[in-house]
Amino acid sequence: MAGTQGKVIAQNKKARHDYFIEETYEAGMVLQGTEIKSMRAGRMNLKDSFARIKNGEMYLHNAHISEYEQGNRYNHEPERARKLLLHKKQINQLIGLTKQQGYSLVPLKVYIKNGYAKILIGLAKGKKNFDKRETLRRKDAKREVERALKDRMRG
């Protein structure tokens, strides 16, 4: 749905391993001044973070943005809940989808687009352990096929 432009700040690589991503949404982030400065320096971590809808607004929880070194007393709290900006129609659609069993909202990546911090949120369904093993098996098989083709092209 959304193509990234600009600098990718943080990625949640574990998300695609742990979840089936059904759909993605691009959302803006409401940040404080020291947060965006710290993000531009690349000091953000999306590990174990998630999005939740509360009172018709979406929030990002457990995303760690390190304190800005020159922030002194105006610094932010590293793991505070941050508001995400989406259209009301999209939020209502997501409320309906997340009420279904097994769906959750997972942040996939954070990037700067046209000077604004954006986050790519994925509507995700959790994988079971056998699904994860199957995915790894397919990935290994694909790698082996590519390696065999590469060797054949050389020889």
Defining traits:
about 160 residues, alpha+beta, two-stranded antiparallel sheet, RNA-binding, SmpB
General form: globular
The count of β-strands is 9
| Portion in beta strands | 35-45%
User: What would the average pLDDT be, to the nearest integer?
Assistant: 83
Q: List unreliable stretches of 5+ residues.
A: none
Task: Report strand order across the widest sheet.
Answer: 1-8-9-2-7-5-4
User: Terminal Cα separation, in Å?
Assistant: 42 Å
- Roughly how many Å is the radius of gyration? 18 Å
Keywords: Cytoplasm, RNA-binding
InterPro entries: SmpB (IPR023620), SsrA-bd_prot (IPR000037), SsrA-bd_prot_CS (IPR020081)
Protein name: SsrA-binding protein
Pfam family, one: SmpB
Chart the SSEs and their pairings:
Blueprint: E1 8-11, H1 13-18, E2 19-29, H2 33-40, E3 44-45, E4 50-54, E5 57-61, E6 64-65, E7 82-85, H3 88-98, E8 103-113, E9 116-126, H4 129-154
Antiparallel strand pairs: 1-8, 2-7, 2-9, 3-6, 4-5, 5-7, 8-9
Keywords: Cytoplasm, RNA-binding
Protein name: SsrA-binding protein
Organism: Alkalihalophilus lindianensis
